Amino acid sequence: MTKTLPLLAAALIAVTGAAHAHPGGRDSGPVTRDEALQKAEDRFAEMDENADGFVTLEELEGQLRGRRARHAEKMFDKHDINDDGYVSLDEMLEHAGERFDEVDTDGDGVISDEEREAAREGMRDRMKKKRG
Ligand SMILES: [Ca+2]
Ligand SMILES: [Ca+2]
């Protein structure tokens, strides 16, 4: 009998948790791989100002304002996987997929709040190390 209790509790959490599945906030709740790629595609469309299917460094710089613009070149290099000076939608999605897999540490195809928080912490640590 004792074995069924944790199961019951898990079932209850699953049911009550489902009631909060649509919190409305865009940055809360689990994110699936498909959602992450869809977001990347939307971002790409925003960045590709002349809608030619490629994002140039100039277009990226135009999107990043102020302090972040200094990182445009670095970011661009990361996304321009074949190094031809343009970021295509394929490259954007490939990069987004890689990033997703990095954050999705248990590999279940969903980024939970915990995994997102862990990724944030990791980023903070890396920045601290860079500064020395
Ligand atoms: Ca390219
Ligand atoms: Ca996960």
Give a short overview.
With 132 residues, the chain is mainly α. The chain has six helices and four strands, in the order αβαβααβαβα.
Could you explain the architecture of this structure?
With 132 residues, this protein is mainly alpha-helical. The chain has a domain of 81 residues: Recoverin, domain 1 (Orthogonal Bundle). 60% of the residues lie in helices and 6% in strands. Strands 1-4 form a two-stranded antiparallel sheet. Helix 2 packs antiparallel against helix 5. About 11% of the residues have low confidence. Bound molecules: calcium ion (2 copies). One calcium ion binds next to strand 4.
How would you describe this structure in keywords?
globular; EF_hand_dom; Recoverin, domain 1; 132 residues; calcium ion binding; EF-hand domain-containing protein; mainly alpha; two-stranded antiparallel sheet; binds calcium ion
Helix-strand blueprint:
Blueprint: H1 4-18, E1 31-32, H2 33-47, E2 54-55, H3 57-63, H4 72-79, E3 87-88, H5 89-103, E4 110-111, H6 113-131
Antiparallel strand pairs: 1-4, 2-3
Helix pairs in contact: 2-5
This protein binds calcium ion (2 copies).
One calcium ion is lined by residues 80, 82, 84, 86-88, 91.
Strand order of the largest sheet: 1-4
Radius of gyration, whole Å: 19 Å
pLDDT < 50 runs, ≥5 residues: 12-25
Please identify the top-level CATH class of the domain at 30-110.
Mainly Alpha
Biggest sheet, open or closed, and with what strands and sense?
A: 2 strands, antiparallel
Number of helices: 6
State the helicity in percent bands. 55-70%
- Under CATH, the homologous superfamily of the domain at 30-110 reads EF-hand
